[in-house]
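Researcher: I need the complex structure. Ligand is 2-acetamido-2-deoxy-beta-D-glucopyranose. Inputs:
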Amino acid sequence: MVVTTSALFFAGLFTSAYACGDAVAHSRRASMPSSITLPTRPLEWGDINIIHTTDSHGWLLGHQKASSPEPNYSGDFGDFASFVAHMKEMAEKRNADLLLVDSGDLHDGTGLIDGFPPGGIDAHDANEFFTQLPYDVLAIGNHELYKYVNALDMHQNFAPKFPGRYLTSNVNITVADKQGNPVNIPLGSRYAKFKTRKGRKVTALGVLFDFTGFDKNTTVQKVADMVKEQWFAEAIEDEPDFFLLAGHMPVAQDKWPLVFNAIRQVHPSTPILILGGHSHIRDCIQLDGRSMSLESGRYMETIAAKLDHGNNSSDNITFTRRYLDPNRVTYEYHTGRKGSSFDTRKGKSITSGLKALAKAFNLDFLFGTAPRDFTLNRVPYPSESSLLSLFIEDAVPTALAINNTRSSIPNLIITNSGSQRFDIYAGPFTKNDQLTTSPFADAFFYIPEITLSLAKQVLLNLNHAGATSRRSSETLEAREAHLYGLGYVDKRYREWLESMDKRNGAERREAANQTLGYVTQDVRFSL
Ligand SMILES: *[C@@H]1O[C@H](CO)[C@@H](O)[C@H](O)[C@H]1NC(C)=O
Ligand SMILES: *[C@@H]1O[C@H](CO)[C@@H](O)[C@H](O)[C@H]1NC(C)=O
Ligand SMILES: *[C@@H]1O[C@H](CO)[C@@H](O)[C@H](O)[C@H]1NC(C)=O
Ligand SMILES: *[C@@H]1O[C@H](CO)[C@@H](O)[C@H](O)[C@H]1NC(C)=O
Ligand SMILES: *[C@@H]1O[C@H](CO)[C@@H](O)[C@H](O)[C@H]1NC(C)=O
Ligand SMILES: *[C@@H]1O[C@H](CO)[C@@H](O)[C@H](O)[C@H]1NC(C)=O
Ligand SMILES: *[C@@H]1O[C@H](CO)[C@@H](O)[C@H](O)[C@H]1NC(C)=O
Ligand SMILES: *[C@@H]1O[C@H](CO)[C@@H](O)[C@H](O)[C@H]1NC(C)=O
Ligand SMILES: [Zn+2]
Ligand SMILES: [Zn+2]
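Model: Output:
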C-alpha cells in the first residue's frame, strides 16, 4: 500500500477566517456534530455580488449522510436554485448586481453522473439541471475533457443552453463540419462581453490550467500562449467596468498572474475578479488592491462566495467574501425565508427531477451496511476507521480471490491512496456510494512468478523516491509536474488539509468536543 502524506483533519471550537480585504475575523460556535446551526451574521451586500460554484462533480443531491460534517453540505441543487432565485430578487430590491458563476468540473464523482445505463453519456442527464439555473458565466473543467464523447456533449448540448456564456478561452474541439471535414474550433466561447442588469460592462474569460490529459480531438492551449493571441488582445482592449475571469485553475500557485498581468498592462486599475477552481480548496488571494481571486472548494461543500466592491478608481477596492456551507439552514437564514416560503416551484421541480434520475439509475441499490465511518484523511493509515485499510485489507483481497485461478498463489498487492476518492459513512452502502467512493475503472496489473525479496523492495522505493539523492528529487519533481498536468490535485488538497490542521488543529484536537471544520487563511500579495 503506498500512502503518501496522510493529513489529519480535525478542528475544534472556533472557525475563524480573515476576509480578503477587510481582515475581519468571524467565528462560529461548535454544535452537536450532526446538527446544523445558524450562520453568525448576514451577508454584506455590495454593488456587485457574485455567487460562485466550482468542482461540483455531480453532488447535485447534496451530501446525504448523517455523520459529521456531511449535514453541513446537505442542500441539494433544487434548494440552491431557490436560494439563487431569492438572492436575485433581493439584489434587485437593493439596486445591486448579482452574478452566478461556475468554474467547471461537472463530470465524474457521483452516481447521478457516472451511474448512467449502457449507451448513455456521462453527466448528460445531470447537466440538464445545471442549465435550469441562471448562470451568467461558466468555465470548462479538465474533467469535461478526458473523453471526447463527453467534450462533444458539452459542445453540442450544454454550451448552446448558455449562449455565448460557456467559456473555453483556451480549449478547442475538432468536429466534422457540414461537408464532413474536420474543423478545430473553440468548444464553447472564447470570451463574453455583456452588461449586467444594472448596466455595468463586463468582459469575461474562461481559462483552463495547462491540462495535458485531454482526449484526442480536443486541445488545451497553454495559458502563456493564450495571452499572446490576437483575439485575446482584442478582447481585453476596451475597458469594461470590471473583468470577470472565471476559470478552472487554482487561484494560487498556477498561471492566473499571466492573465492578470496581460490585462494590467493595458488597464492599470480596472477591477479584476478571478473565480478559480480545480484544487478543491477554499482559497482567496489578492494580486493587487483592485482585484480579488477566490476559489470555492469542491463537491457542493462550498457553494457561495460573495464579493462586493466600491468604485473609486484611485483607491484599493473593499471586497468581502464568505464561504457558505450549502444547506437549507444557511439558505433560509440569508434569504429570510422558511420552509414552503423558501422553496420555489423551479427549486422543487429540480429536487424531484434529481430524485427521479437517481431512481432511474438505480442508485439506491443496496450492497450492504457500513458499521462505522471510514475516512480518507481524518485518521492515520493503518487504522480501524481508515478507508485505505478497509480497501487494501478487506475489499481488495476479497475481490481478487473471486473467480481468480491465481488466488491460491501468495501475492503482494501495491496500490495508491489516490485510487479512492471519498469517505464511506456509517449506514447503507449503495450503488451511489460505490460510484462516489471508488469511481475509477482501473484495471489491476500483475507480474507473475517474482521473488518475495525483490517484490518487497518495490513499495519502499516508491515511497522514498527522491529522499536519497538530488537527482532523484528532481525526478520526483518532474513526475509531480507531469501528474499535475494530467489533472491530479490530491497532493495539493492534502497539503491544504495539513496546513489547516497545523495552524488551528492542535488546540482543537485537545478540546473534548471536536468538530470538523474548514479553517481558511487568506494571503495578500502584490506582484
Ligand atoms: C478526429 O476527428 C476527425 C474529424 O471528425 C476524425 O476524422 C478523426 O478520426 C478523429 N480522430 C480520432 C483519433 O478520433
Ligand atoms: C482553436 O480554434 C480556432 C478557430 O478555428 C483556431 O483559430 C485556433 O488556432 C485553435 N486553437 C488551438 C490551440 O488549436
Ligand atoms: C492597496 O493594496 C495593496 C496590495 O494589497 C497594498 O500594498 C497597499 O498598501 C494598499 N494601499 C492602500 C492605500 O491601502
Ligand atoms: C459607486 O459609485 C456610485 C456612483 O458614483 C455611487 O452611487 C455608489 O455609492 C458608489 N459605491 C460605493 C461602494 O462607493
Ligand atoms: C476617491 O478617492 C480619492 C482619494 O482617496 C478621493 O480624493 C476622492 O474624493 C474619492 N472619490 C470618490 C468619488 O469617492
Ligand atoms: C464467478 O464465476 C461464476 C461462474 O462462471 C459466475 O456465475 C459468477 O457470476 C462470477 N462471479 C463474479 C463476481 O464475477
Ligand atoms: C465542549 O466541551 C467543553 C469542555 O468539555 C464544555 O464545557 C462545552 O459545554 C462543550 N460544548 C458543547 C457544545 O458540547
Ligand atoms: C458544520 O457546521 C457547524 C455549525 O453549524 C460548524 O460548527 C462546523 O464547523 C461545520 N463543519 C464544517 C466541516 O464546516
Ligand atoms: Zn475537480
Ligand atoms: Zn479539475
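Model: Summary of the prediction. Residues 172, 184-186, 219, 221 surround 2-acetamido-2-deoxy-beta-D-glucopyranose (ligand 2) (CB under 6 Å).
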